[in-house]
Design brief:
With about 270 residues, the chain is α/β, with parallel strands linked by helices. The chain is about 25% helix and about 20% strand. It holds the Pfam family PC-Esterase.
Length: about 270
């Protein structure tokens, strides 16, 4: 998003966005970083229109925030990998070439996807026992390779099922994790870094997949601007406390508000 006029990013107009989205359905699909952005946007819109009534409810894993006055609904559904995880006789199988949940994504005017954070988990936090693609089943593989295969499956689904005259599709870029090493974790950080790091490997994979698609998917390129915000995480104030500092998610208000300013710019520009 280097081409964005930085002054424009200060001009977020929540009421204008609500009016633009009037009568439309919005869905965020992804992991807890997608939840971070969804929560941020609902708060920004509520602050912009504090007198507008709203409803919030969650059922069967689907969270819905609605502004009845504007006939706008913003939904979030958790799907960390975008492709399927199926429980079979041998255990939980991550199927890199299968999207059975895609039917839930139909009928929306605006879709914002994300995926990456959970691809790196191992041990108890790993959500699968096996990885399958085509006729191959393995216990593990290079996670970047698996991520690329899953993104290609998602891209084929979008190309085959989305009508761009009715639905705009965005992909939240890779949100950096500042807790992968002791040297650069977020504990006690109160200032941003002076410069972003090198391009994130998953960011490169994502950009290559999006470039190869037949349908237009807009990248919310949040990676570099988020890389410098080592000070923006919950840190010891997250659920893990001092023992398991949260250097992955973001405080609200905070960095996800900037992501939504990008989204706002791209929607009304």
């Amino acid at each position: 998003m280097d081409e964005v006029d930085r002054n424009f990013l200060k001009l977020f107009n929540g009421v204008k966005l609500l009016r633009k989205l009037k009568g439309k359905k919005v869905m965020f699909v992804g992991d807890s970083l997608s939840l971070n952005q969804w929560q941020s946007l609902t708060c920004m819109l509520h602050v912009a229109a504090p007198q507008a009534l709203y409803t919030l409810h969650t059922k069967d894993g689907l969270s819905t925030f609605t502004f009845p006055e504007y006939d706008v609904s913003l939904k979030f559904i958790r799907n960390a990998f975008l492709v399927d995880i199926k429980v079979e006789g041998r255990g939980r199988v991550l199927r890199l070439d299968s999207i059975g949940t895609g039917k839930i994504w139909r009928g929306f005017n605006l879709l914002i996807f994300n995926s990456w954070h959970w691809w790196l988990h191992t041990g108890r936090k790993q959500h699968w026992d096996w990885i399958a693609y085509g006729n191959n089943t393995v216990k593990d593989m290079d996670r970047l390779v698996a991520y690329k295969k899953a993104l290609n499956t998602w891209a084929k689904w979008i190309d085959s099922n989305i009508d761009p005259t009715k639905t705009r599709v965005f992909f939240q870029g890779v949100s950096p994790d500042h807790g992968r090493s002791t040297a650069d974790n977020c504990g006690g950080r109160t200032r941003p870094l002076k410069r972003p790091g090198s391009p994130h490997p998953a960011e490169v994979v994502l950009e290559n997949v999006l470039r190869g698609m037949g349908k237009t998917v807009h990248l919310l390129n949040v990676t570099r601007i988020s890389q410098v915000r080592i000070d923006g995480h919950p840190s010891v104030y997250g659920h893990g406390g001092h023992r398991d500092m949260d250097c992955s998610h973001w405080c609200l208000s905070g960095v996800p508000d900037i992501w939504n300013q990008f989204l706002y710019y791209m929607l009304i520009h």
